Each structure stands twice: as C-alpha cells, then as structure tokens.
Request: fold
Amino acid sequence: MDSRGQGSFHRVMKGIEHLRRHNVDFNILSVIHKGNVGHAAEIMAFFAQEGFSYVQFIPCMDFRSQEPDKPGVYDITPAEYGRFLREAFDYWYNGGNPQVSVCFFDNMLAGYTNREAELCIHRAECPTTIILEQNGDAYPCDFYISPEWKIGNVATGERSLRPEAGIIFAPATRRFMRMRTSG
Reply:
C-alpha cells in the first residue's frame, strides 16, 4: 500500500473508532478489485481481528462508463470474483460456526431456508427503499442514481418528499417499481 493509501486507511479506522465510541452501528462495504481479489482470507481475518460483525463485498465497477441500459464495466472478471467469494466463504463458514455476517452468504442462506432475502438482487421484487445522497438527493435504488431516477431533494424541503406526501409514491419511485416487477 502506498503512503496515500495508508493515510486513507488510517482515516477510515479513526472514523470507525469514532463510531464505536458513540455506539453507532455500522457495516463494512469492501470493494473487490485487482489489488485485493486474491486476498479473501486475509481480508476476512482482518475483519474478524477488528471485530467487524457485518460485511459486504462488491466487485469494483467503473461507474463513469455505466449507463442504465448497458452492462457495467468491472475491474475484475466473474471468475476472479467467484474465487474471492469461495475463499471468503471457506473462512466465513468456520466449521459451521460463522462469526461474521457476510451479506451475500446470509442472503443465499435465507433463500435456501425459505426466508426473504435482504438484498434486492436476491428477491423477486425490489423492497420499497429510498436512497439519500449526502446532498439530500433521493432515489428509489442505489444502483440507479442518475437524473432520470431522482425523486427529489430532502434538503430543499420539496413538498413531494415530505412524509405526509408519501415519498414512496413519487412518480420516479412508482415508475422504477413497475420496471423492476415487470422484468
């Protein structure tokens, strides 16, 4: 890791310690890329050592090239990501006694035990969820953050986003839900 990466790491860990001091629950989202795809066991061991209870993995994607009607451009291949997940699973399984919640594995287990999965990609229909960006922009899904799907902005106090207006009934939300359930 170069000095720039080391500085970012220390800032993240300082932020985590701040959250812990104030008893704030948090999850770890780890982006899997060319630099870490071969290190699943090390990553899992680090998470366990740090006492991270809830982790999630996503493959690195170039969002600048992503358009809603085209496939994304990923930094790693499906085979690389599959190997990463297998290695992470072997660590996670822990002889049948997992110590860490890994979102993907938990959702797969939910499906096998006839329970509702948490992640939308593992469900027949999207859950009604509103995503808020740091500037207050609201969207019906964190994979569709683009002007076409913007519901509004809570920071500006837009009338359609007030609880009594039923934010989940905003036109973009209804349009998104119809798209997801139809195909």
In short: The chain has a mean pLDDT of 81. The first helix runs from residue 3 to 21. Helices lie at 3-21, 40-50, 78-93, 103-112, 171-182. The CA atoms of residues 1 and 9 lie 10 Å apart.
